[in-house]
From TrEMBL:
Gene3D superfamilies: Medium-chain alcohol dehydrogenases, catalytic domain. It comes from Salmonella enterica subsp. arizonae. The keyword Metal-binding applies. One of its GO terms (molecular function) is S-(hydroxymethyl)glutathione dehydrogenase [NAD(P)+] activity. PANTHER family: ALCOHOL DEHYDROGENASE, ALCOHOL DEHYDROGENASE CLASS-3. InterPro entries: ADH-like_N (IPR013154), ADH_Zn_CS (IPR002328), GroES-like_sf (IPR011032). This is Alcohol dehydrogenase class III.
Amino acid sequence: MKSRAAVAFAPGKPLKIVEIDVAPPKKGEVLVKITHTGVCHTDAFTLSGDDPEGVFPAVLGHEGGGVVVEVGRGCNQPETWRPCYSIVYGGVRRV
């Protein structure tokens, strides 16, 4: 499926709104239509080029909320959840 995204193609350069391809969900995955997202300090750090782990091109904004629009095989009842420090600590807090 097609979608639009604000893509960072290089550090320190303006984001570009482009059409991207989104793969359908695989087994056990869900496809979420993102309706809200934040751009936090981590994203700004990556975009600045100072992040040694920054990879480009990138779609920034990892703090999102949205609606499940498709489920992959084996995923019959997606749970409502909210990641909590998942990048730093690797845990997920379910609510």
